[in-house]
Design goal:
Distance between the termini: 82 Å
Bound molecules: heme C
Strand order of the largest sheet: 3-4-5
Largest sheet: 3 strands, antiparallel
Amino acid sequence: MDSKLRTGAALAILAVAAPLIWAGVGAGPAKGGQSAVSARRVERGKYLVTIGGCNDCHTPFKMGSNGPEPDMARMLSGHPESMKLPPPPAPSGPWIASFAGTLTAYAGPWGISYAANLTPDKNTGTGGGVWSEEVFIKALRTGKHFGTSRPIQPPMPWNWIGKATDEDLKSIWAYLQSIPPVSNHVPDWQEPPAGSPQGAPAAPKK
Ligand code: HEC
């Protein structure tokens, strides 16, 4: 190879390699930083969801050998769509509310509410539709369904969970997006019938 050709070849290699090296320098640390943040959030979110009791309502209970236990194969997938419920028993004296055996459906003065599917399933959970990190945080801060529409009904403790810091709510969201999606269409809240002994829905006044 004469020296001109050698220089030409070297330049050609540089021309191809330079953008790659540049991209490596530019994107490497930023990407690494982002995935470190999301790994940290998923870990923290798992801890918060575990101690925050979300499974108590959002994971259906099944009968185990030692009594009722959360069915972790359906973790956080909400009220099972296969469970069709008869009308709830009428309230009696101070006994104003009843729960289904799965602990995922609740009848009371607010009508009938069903624990939502928090798994990232695209069609029935938080992995599609209107859901995003922003909507999730807004719902828990405002107590509005999807952050904008009707009031979120009891016994969802949004008023307490919504007091968490932005970073903690982002962590809960990151963890929920990381768990196995479960396809399960949860029924929407049913208002109590007009004039029913259950009374009016317990809608928080603005
Ligand atoms: C005591 C039962 C209970 C607990 C504990 C609970 N939830 Fe819920 N959750 C519900 C019910 C019931 C609904 C459905 C309410 C409705 O349809 O208005 C709901 C709905 C939701 C929704 C949907 C809100 C919307 O916009 O409609 C999200 C998100 C949610 N819960 C997250 C959580 C998280 C995260 C935790 C734990 C930190 C948690 N929940 C703990 C009962 C509970």
